[in-house]
Specification:
The complex is a heterodimer of chains A (153) and B (153). Chain A is of the alpha+beta class. Chain A folds into two domains: 6-46, Arc Repressor Mutant, subunit A (Orthogonal Bundle), CATH 1.10.10; 59-140, Lrp/AsnC effector binding domain/regulation of amino acid metabolism (RAM) domain (Alpha-Beta Plaits, 2-Layer Sandwich), CATH 3.30.70.920. Helices cover 33% and strands 31% of the residues of chain A. Chain A contains five helices and five strands; from the N terminus they run αααββαββαβ. In chain A, strands 3-4-2-5 form a four-stranded antiparallel beta sheet. The two termini of chain A are 15 Å apart. By secondary structure, chain B is an alpha+beta fold. Chain B folds into two domains: 6-46, Arc Repressor Mutant, subunit A, CATH 1.10.10; 66-140, 2-Layer Sandwich (Alpha-Beta Plaits). Chain B has five helices and five strands. Chain B has helices at residues 6-17, 23-30, 34-46, 82-90, 116-127, and strands at residues 50-57, 66-74, 95-102, 107-113, 133-146. Chain B has a four-stranded antiparallel beta sheet. In chain B, a hairpin with a 4-residue loop joins strand 3 (95-102) and strand 4 (107-113). Chain B is elongated, with a radius of gyration of 20 Å. Chain B starts with 5 loop residues before the first helix and ends in a 7-residue tail after the last strand. Classes of the chains: A alpha+beta (153), B alpha+beta (153). Strand 1 of chain A pairs antiparallel with strand 1 of chain B.
């Protein structure tokens, strides 16, 4: 699966550090000609190592002050317990992350809300009626100390 | 309250999907002038709504096959030194996310590793050895999806 070498790794590290391919910033940092650097980046893109670019947004600017991590255990005796639960969870606009796990928790939903009463409304009106819930547990986020999706390449 | 309008939200949605889009490309997609898009992006960046742009790498393709979420409960003796605990965790490159939470656990961690053996090494040598760590629960990530932005409140 390892389809890249040390130079690729240095390119990826530079990109994770916020350097850009445009303007040969990365080529200089890694010691390649701009054309060679471009070719490598294109190969990393076509092989799927580089998926793309995104921006990080401050949810508070959207008026969302409350973030809750809901850990759900599903009733696995129900056929398609995961699929029906996830399809229904996608319809809740305030759910901004859906993850499935191997472990005590089956599915985690990340819920954003304006304030506690808004959260209570979402929880009662939308969350509790989701299908196949056996158990549900909430972790309310007090502070995000670190959120850095960089890989330790 | 938030100072964002619908055009800002459209710009943000486009940039979340493809953070490499420039003002010209965005202007074409949205149908407003390029200088106006540029001014809006500048304002969104300066006001902190856009916290940053980053490259998105595929963990699997880059050789990081395992993502584990840890729930960490502090032992009663650990509660006096939250700052030290957070500082030590932040310095571990495999720990991508640290959230201080309220509920069954005190902290939620997102840990990335090359494989389960690598994860065990990080867990045993770097995380469990930190002073104050009590009960730890691990759930291995199987799938995840990020949903679109919730509506403006």
């Amino acid at each position: 699966m390892q389809t890249f070498d040390e130079i690729d790794r240095r390119i990826l590290r530079a990109m994770q550090a916020g350097q850009t391919v445009a303007g040969s910033e990365i080529a200089r940092a890694v010691g390649l000609s701009p054309a060679t650097c471009w070719r490598r980046v294109e190969r990393l893109e076509s092989s799927g190592v580089i998926r793309g670019h995104t921006i990080d947004i401050d949810a508070r600017a959207f008026g969302y002050e409350i973030e809750v991590s809901l850990r759900v255990t599903l009733d696995k005796t129900q056929p398609d317990a995961f699929d029906t639960f996830i399809v229904a969870a996608r319809r809740i606009p305030e759910v901004n992350e859906i993850q499935t796990f191997l472990g005590r928790v089956d599915v985690r939903l990340n819920v954003m809300a304006r304030d506690l009463s808004h959260y209570q409304e979402i929880y009662r009106r939308d969350i509790l009626i989701l299908p196949n819930i056996a158990d549900i547990e909430s972790l309310m986020v007090i502070a995000t100390v670190k959120d850095d999706r960089s890989l330790p390449l | 309250m938030t100072g964002l309008d619908d055009t800002d939200v459209v710009i943000l949605r486009h940039l979340m999907a493809d953070g490499s889009l420039g003002a010209a490309a965005l202007a074409r997609k949205i149908g407003i002038s390029q200088p106006s898009v540029w001014r809006r992006i500048r304002r969104l960046e300066d006001s902190g709504v856009i916290q940053g742009r980053r490259v998105v790498l595929d963990g699997q393709a880059a050789g990081f096959g395992v993502t584990v979420f840890l729930g960490v409960k502090l032992a009663s003796r650990g509660r006096s030194s939250l700052d030290d605990f957070e500082r030590a965790l932040t310095a571990i490159p495999e720990v991508q996310t640290i959230q201080h939470v309220l509920g069954r656990y005190d902290y939620r961690l997102r840990v990335v590793a090359r494989d389960l053996g690598d994860f065990e090494r990080v867990l045993r040598r770097r995380i469990i050895v930190l002073p104050g760590v009590g009960d730890v629960e691990a759930n291995v990530l199987l799938s995840e999806e990020t949903r679109p932005l919730p509506p403006l409140s």
